[in-house]
Amino acid sequence: MLGAFSEFALLLLISAAAGAVSLWLRQPVLIAYIVVGIVAGPAVFGIVTAHDQIDLLAQIGVAILLFVVGLKLDLQHIRHIGPVALATGLGQLTFTIIIGFAIILLLGKSMMEAIYVAVALTFSSTIIIVKLLSDKREIDSLHGRIAVGFLIVQDLAVVLAMMAMSALRGSDEAGMAEIAVSLVGRVVAAAVAIYLLMRYVLPKVVDLMARSQELLLVFAIAWGTGLAALGEWAGFSKEAGAFLAGFSLASTHYRDAINARLTGIRDFLLLFFFIDLGAKLDFSTLGEELWPAVILSLFVLIGNPLIVMAIMGYMGYRKRTGFLCGLTVAQISEFSIIFVAMGITLGHVGKEALGLTTLVGITTIALSTYMILYSHPLYEKLAPWLGWFERRRPFRELAVATERHDLKEADVIVFGLGRYGGRLALGLKEEGLKVLGVEFDPEVARAMRRHGLAVRYGDGVAAEFLESLPLAQTRWVVSTLPDIASNRSLLQALREHNFPGEVAIVAREDFEGVALKHLGAPTILYPMRNAVDYAVEALTDLIRPKENRP
Fold first, then answer.
1. What are 118's strand-pairing partners?
2. Within 10 Å of residue 195's Cβ, how many Cβ atoms?
3. CATH of the structural domain 4-387, one choice from 1.10.10.10, 1.20.1530.20, 1.10.260.40, 3.20.20.70
4. Which of 178, 322, 397, 512 is deepest in the core (most CB within 10 A)?
């Protein structure tokens, strides 16, 4: 038998190796940690014996996770979520719960288990989605901003759900009206207490603690775990208390510093939550949950995106925007597993519900990761069948298209007006060139027009849209589109239209440049490399004047 210290060391080594394999497979590491728990648990090698110690670290990790979520939700951010994100988030939550609840009841589950699992199916992983969108440089795109908005709605919903379900503790002795009154009373009391602390106490305390970065970190963890314990004592849950602790510090000047220092600790401690989860999975019951897990996984992978697409189509968005947003909810999250695990602690559901949720989580997270990574090629293949999810006149996006600021001829057309493309287009215009921008994000298109740039709103890789551009009178096309698939489609469309001019494409990494060369791109621009070369030359001129160089 290993000692506790040796056991932890071995688990960390195995987790590091499994995490490396997970990254190679382009999967989130949390799946690897669950697998480590299964392998190290009694079902396989039986390495895990320090269950109490691992469970304690897991509980602290969950508390810090909810603390960080609350820390990011400052009041200013909540005010600017936007009606689209709010409507999409609430609509997706409502329809997923109703449809999921009906499916789970048809699968023969109990009423309480159906409630828990149906609610769990609505939550998507903010951590994973934001990471994937950031890696694809789509976090500032139209669909990226909308997705982050309704992920915030989901984060708020999971905390409210935890509060509501924890209030059902002891529901056998009390009627629903009494429970509702008690919950409302406690929520009001908590809101008043948090407001008074945020208004009069915490700013002074945090200012004092911030004199030392180490002390600020210790205070943050103490505040988070302290309110987590207080939340459980008050009849909510540890998770709800930790969230309120983070939210109470979200409006301070130090939230970014606290968040930066807590992120690594959060990830480290959550490792033990997923290891503990994998080690506690009861494989004698998982076999019975296999087919329900398959059915619910298909519902999450296909049904959730369709719900989001239907809502966004009704609200006046194009099918492409709805599709890209919909893919971000084609999974359940770590919160889903935490939510059902809380139900076991409260005695509402059995371990079978946790096993079912975990199976759905592993399946949907693994598959949806690849769906998001290859979202643009996937859209190209499915676009002909997605017309049902787009109004005949998608008015919310067409409102920008009707603002005509076109050129009948141009020296250069720039596809993609993000941070780099927009600056490039404006710079070329300042040099006296006739520049026409093409942009799919309506807000970016409006912003560029306010800067005096001629912009055509539309999908730059759609063949029918290219026909409306003055390609015959254009000398150069420059693409700053973020992914290889879109640039491949653009190159193919330009060839089909016999574009007579030159083409330059931006590559963020060397491997992208090689792939684009193979696709036939004649000129490749490397923004990072060019910026570094310019910085080296400028700094060299400042440090060592030209006349003193060898």
1. none
2. 11
3. 1.20.1530.20
4. 322
